[in-house]
Amino acid sequence: MSVSTPGENRQVNVVKSGKSTATGGKPPADDDKPSGSKSTTGTKTTTSSKPGGAAKPGQRPAGAGGKGRRPVTPVKVTQQRSWGPIGLLTAVILVAVAIVGFGAYFIIKDMRATSAAEAKQKSEAELEKKEASTPWTQRAAAIQGIVNYRDQKPAWLTNNHKQGKLTYAVTPSVGGDHNPVWQNCMGDVYKAPIATEHATHSLEHGAIWITYDSKLDAAQVAKLAERVTGKEYMLMSPVDNLGSPITLQAWGYQLKVDNADDSRIDAFVRALRKNASMESGASCSGGVTRTGTTPYDLGS
């Protein structure tokens, strides 16, 4: 029989009257009664007031063998990381990032260089348009250090076609008799000396011939090349023992400068390119492109 009180979880043990395995068949004395137990006549009913009478999970009940089993401590299994694939993946990601970074750097660099070149060309075109209202001879005369051989030595500026090696009063030449074939002057940058006889013919067509000493610093040469490359009626070449770092020639004009950053270079080009021609409209393409100081006699 079970007796329960509302709100309590009690476990009830029922023992038959007159029999007790713990006292040899005698009812237990009052002193032996568990605390909080109740008894009835003829029948002893023991009610436990302890809510903890039930066996705990993982613990063996006290009645089964008399001893409880200790809780089993769970075993932690630690899984080691596989560092090989992780390291390989990290390396691949870093390489990819580096490639993308370098690619972006060079693309941006090229874009900036292109933009700078376009801006410079636009500025030069606007300046030439602005200066067009002033006669080119006046603009040339305003350049400090320019030598005008048209006024000083007009007799030197003959323009006959002759074969073979020729002698010139000015080095590099600013005009005079020359080879029947001109040096190609469509923005050509020659890295070795060229024949004066061909270059002089280019001047007759209105080209600007920029020359520099063969020992000039490479960075200076590069700056000169930027002014020449891709521009028609322009050519450039080194000269051994020039006597000046840089010289510029047009038909009848010459300017010597010490540095490729000299602003007079641009002023010379703007004033005299095409304008100083002795044969207006003559082409700069289709000329000799070979280097060497000996002229090539290719006919008249």
- Count the E strands: 8
- Terminal Cα span: 140 Å
Indicate the mean pLDDT: 81
Number of helices: 6
Write the H/E string, N to C.
Answer: EEHHEHEHEHEEEH
Catalogue the unreliable spans. 1-5, 17-24, 34-52
Strand content: 5-15%
Characterize the main sheet: 6 strands, mixed
Provide the number of structural domains.
3
Strand-helix topology:
Elements: E1 12-15, E2 44-47, H1 83-131, H2 136-141, E3 147-148, H3 149-152, E4 186-189, H4 196-204, E5 208-213, H5 218-228, E6 234-239, E7 246-250, E8 253-257, H6 264-272
Parallel strand pairs: 4-6, 5-6
Antiparallel strand pairs: 1-2, 3-8, 5-7, 7-8
Brief summary of the model shown:
The chain is α/β, with parallel strands linked by helices. Helix content is 29%, strand content 12%.
Question: Overview of this structure, please?
Answer:
The chain is α/β, with parallel strands linked by helices and 300 residues long. It folds into 3 domains: 1-51, no CATH class; 91-133; 136-272, no CATH class. The chain contains 6 helices and 8 strands. It has helices at residues 83-131, 136-141, 149-152, 196-204, 218-228, 264-272; strands at residues 12-15, 44-47, 147-148, 186-189, 208-213, 234-239, 246-250, 253-257. Strands 3-8-7-5-6-4 form a 6-stranded mixed sheet, with helices on both faces. A two-stranded antiparallel sheet has the order 1-2. Strand 7 (246-250) and strand 8 (253-257) form a beta hairpin. Mean pLDDT is 81; it is low at 1-5, 17-24 and 34-52.
